[in-house]
């Protein structure tokens, strides 16, 4: 499976790329500038020496991949989708974007007209197979490649096949358990849980994640 990480130069994209590479997947790091993508790919080669990683612009990474993970700030989402254009049509798009703002030291969700970042992606790229999730693993944890992750990975999407493809990627990472959390209309709740975790992390100086009981 070839996976593009748009905005893969940031901590979240880098961390997820490292875990996918360690699981044997092929990763294309995307950036607005090729030089930054190459720099990030170099960091990943140092982290996962056997990993198959290439560097490209976001548009070229998307065109060359079957699964496209979007890992840019919400403010850069529309521009990133526009830059990739037709390369996104029909592809599985994994939405990692959390529309956040900080007010008075508290993490709050930005209001998104479509309801969530995932629904915004689906509205802008109607032919894409959007899945939202993997938002509750912190970049810091992902980047500590020698440390096992743990927890449940909640996934939302309207395309069952796309959700299964992402679930398989999650299962490739030891100890992570994918859970189907419903359709894209529920994705806003995933975003809200991320905001909750960030506030918990700040209060308790922790790195929290999610594990469900009873399911
Ligand atoms: N950090 C975490 O622990 C975490 C956890 C869960 C979810 N997330 C979500 O994952 C996404 C990425 O997080 P991050 O911490 O890696 O973010 P980040 O470092 O702020 O940004 C990631 C990359 O996005 C690109 N970018 C920045 N501003 C942009 C803009 N205006 N337009 C287009 N591209 C832009 C940059 O890449 P180039 O300059 O190379 O193009 C940057 O390296 C965010 O939506 C965040 O909410 C983060």
Structural class: alpha/beta
- Unreliably modeled segments: none
The helical percent reads 25-40%
What integer is the average pLDDT? 97
Topology as H/E string? EHEHEHEHEEEHEHEHEH
Beta-strand percent range: 15-25%
Molecular shape: globular
Strand order of the largest sheet: 3-2-1-4-5-8-9-10
Tally the helices.
8
Would you give an account of this structure?
The protein is of the alpha/beta class and 215 residues long. Helices cover 39% and strands 23% of the residues. The protein contains eight helices and ten strands. The longest helix is centred in the last third of the chain and has 18 residues. The two termini are 29 Å apart. Bound molecules: NADP nicotinamide-adenine-dinucleotide phosphate. The site of NADP nicotinamide-adenine-dinucleotide phosphate has 25 residues, from helix 1 and helix 4.
Pick out its properties.
single chain; 215 residues; alpha/beta; 8-stranded mixed sheet; two-stranded antiparallel ribbon; globular; binds NADP nicotinamide-adenine-dinucleotide phosphate
Please describe the topology of this protein.
Layout: E1 2-6, H1 11-22, E2 26-31, H2 34-47, E3 52-57, H3 58-63, E4 67-70, H4 77-84, E5 92-95, E6 100-103, E7 106-109, H5 117-124, E8 129-133, H6 139-143, E9 151-157, H7 160-171, E10 176-180, H8 187-204
Parallel strand pairs: 1-2, 1-4, 2-3, 4-5, 5-8, 9-10
Antiparallel strand pairs: 6-7, 8-9
What's the short version?
This protein is of the alpha/beta class.
């Amino acid at each position: 499976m070839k996976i593009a990480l748009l905005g893969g130069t940031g901590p979240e994209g880098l961390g997820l790329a490292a875990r996918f590479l360690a699981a044997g997947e092929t990763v294309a790091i995307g950036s607005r500038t090729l030089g930054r993508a190459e720099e990030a790919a170099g960091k990943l080669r140092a982290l996962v020496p056997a990993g198959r990683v290439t560097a490209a612009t976001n548009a070229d990474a998307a065109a060359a991949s079957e699964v496209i993970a979007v890992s840019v700030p919400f403010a850069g989402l529309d521009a990133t989708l526009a830059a990739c254009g037709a390369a996104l049509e029909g592809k599985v798009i994994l939405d990692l974007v959390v529309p956040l703002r900080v007010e008075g030291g508290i993490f709050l969700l930005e209001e998104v007209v479509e309801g969530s970042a995932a629904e915004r992606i689906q509205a802008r790229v109607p032919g894409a197979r959007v899945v939202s999730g993997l938002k509750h693993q912190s970049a810091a944890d992902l980047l500590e490649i020698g440390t096992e992750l743990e927890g449940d990975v909640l996934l939302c999407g309207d395309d069952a096949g796309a959700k299964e493809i992402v679930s398989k990627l999650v299962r490739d990472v030891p100890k992570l358990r994918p859970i189907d959390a419903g359709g894209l209309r529920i994705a806003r709740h995933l975003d809200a849980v991320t905001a909750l975790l960030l506030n918990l992390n700040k209060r308790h100086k922790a790195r929290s994640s999610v594990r469900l009981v009873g399911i």
